[in-house]
Design brief:
The protein has about 475 residues and is mostly helical. It has 17 helices and no strands.
Length: about 475
């Protein structure tokens, strides 16, 4: 036993301090921001990680087909990623709740259950991606000249999905115990590794989208390795003995009851993006590449709200575990204020200077023009999701994932997808007009969320 561990009356030790943070004490705004800033940096690095493939391929591509292949392939791969992220977020909530209640034995049992459960989940999801790679790309109406390379990209990345799962599991566990710094460091290492591998395989070896795929799984392997090392350093948190990987079925039930709505929600939301991608792919390679690049740019502009929402999930979980609901709602209010201020800045850039962002990815004027049109209307969604992400953090942290599932999925398939489909079929339709479908759907989500919060039902823990 490490010297910095202390024994409880039941003989169980506290985890060593490390970077773990008790989010149930201290000034609310300061605690939230100090916890959220590493989330933000990590998410920037994660977005860079995803954008690097497009950046490098865009610079060294022989034509727009390579860019379209990576755009279609990476957009499809997010289906797998979102399943893993949804379930791992449930791990953050459960670990955070037990940690806030100072029940460290349950924290250890939860960690073992998470690791064991994800082995099966990853196997099933990988098999599904391998089987459905071609049908998904055909469904997307992937341009014929980009189809084969997009499929290779998906197959290679799917075979490395265990590394994607490993990184997300480790990050979820560390965030649940209040450590948002270690995941930031890990993803920074992965991002650097991905950039170097892309420059080598795509730039120097001219392997195109296939090289980008190998760079992706290689860097994910690096990130998973460092994540496991980070957890192993805290033996009192989890000892990695074989017996510790035993599944606690009560914890597993909680993991899937909370995680499945998040995973299905994320998957369906991403599927909606794929649907819209299919409408836009029918408009040609320039529109396809422009929309794909816009999705990457959007992943940056959403980061402040997304980071605050993720931080709120862990902070709310800990505070509800400590029986401090008023502190949780105070954190939510500060989160909305901070996310809204950042959203106004991002909206201004996207509305008035969209070309400056697209120029980083491609020199093709047709792609820049098409993507800029979409961004000028879509950018209003950034203002609305600043509230939605923070509300999701509050509700997910209290275990109300079924509500967030309904509230995010229904507006998407009731308004966003039908509107995008209908607009895309109008004579003379442009990406600017299609871009309005997103803020229309988010408006409905905001209204439904406000009504639900007014009822106060979020205070009823579902953990």
């Amino acid at each position: 036993m490490s010297s910095d561990s202390t024994l409880h009356e039941d003989g169980t030790p506290d985890p060593p301090a490390g970077r773990q943070t008790d989010l149930t004490v201290g000034p609310v705004l300061k605690t939230l921001l100090l916890f959220a800033v590493p989330f933000f940096i990590a998410n920037i690095l994660q977005a860079l990680y995803g954008a690097v493939d497009l950046l490098v391929v865009g610079r060294f591509a022989k034509d727009s087909a390579d860019v379209s292949a990576v755009a279609c392939g990476s957009q499809t791969m997010t289906l797998l990623t979102f399943v893993i992220v949804g379930l791992s977020t449930a791990g953050t909530v459960i670990v955070g709740n037990f940690f806030g209640a100072k029940d460290h034995e349950s924290v250890r049992r939860t960690i073992g259950t998470i690791f064991s459960s994800f082995v099966l989940v990853t196997f099933l999801v990988t098999a599904a991606m391998l089987v459905f790679a071609s049908p998904l790309l055909r469904f997307l109406q992937t341009p014929p000249e980009a189809f084969d390379e997009a499929k290779e990209y998906i197959i290679i990345c799917s075979c490395g999905s265990i590394f994607i799962a490993g990184y997300n599991i480790c990050s979820a566990i560390m965030r649940g115990v209040g450590d948002s710094v270690t995941p930031m460091i890990i993803v920074g290492i992965a991002c650097a590794a991905n950039l170097l591998a892309d420059m080598l395989l795509v730039g120097w070896c001219a392997m195109g989208p296939v090289g980008a795929a190998y760079a992706t799984i290689g860097s994910q392997a690096v990130s998973m390795t460092f994540g496991l090392i980070a957890i192993k350093r805290h033996r009192a948190l989890f000892d990695f003995k074989l017996k510790s990987f035993r599944i606690d079925w009560r914890v597993a039930e909680k993991l899937f009851v909370i995680g499945i709505p998040l995973a299905v929600q994320s998957t369906l939301i991403d599927f909606s993006f794929l649907l819209i991608f299919s409408f836009i792919n029918a408009m040609g390679v320039a529109a396809s590449a422009g929309y794909g690049i816009c999705c990457r740019i959007n992943s940056f502009t959403m980061l402040p709200a997304m980071s605050l929402g993720m931080a709120l999930t862990a902070m709310v979980a800990q505070n509800l575990g400590a029986e401090k609901p008023q502190r949780a709602i105070s954190a939510f209010r500060w989160g909305v204020l901070c996310a809204g201020a950042c959203a106004v800045v991002c909206w201004s850039w996207m509305e008035f200077f969209p070309q400056t962002a697209f120029a980083l990815f491609t020199r093709d004027k047709a792609v820049i023009e098409a993507g800029s049109l979409y961004m000028r209307s879509f950018c209003f969604d950034v203002l609305l999701v600043a509230f939605v992400f923070c509300a999701n953090g509050l509700l997910n942290g209290s275990g109300h994932t079924r509500f967030t599932f309904v509230n995010n999925v229904v507006p998407t398939f009731l308004i966003r997808v039908p509107a995008a489909w209908w607009i895309s079929r109008l004579p003379g339709a442009t990406l600017w007009s299609i871009g309005w479908a997103a803020p229309l759907a988010s408006t409905l989500s905001v209204v439904i969320t406000l009504i639900y919060l007014k009822t106060g039902r979020w205070r009823i823990k579902r953990l």
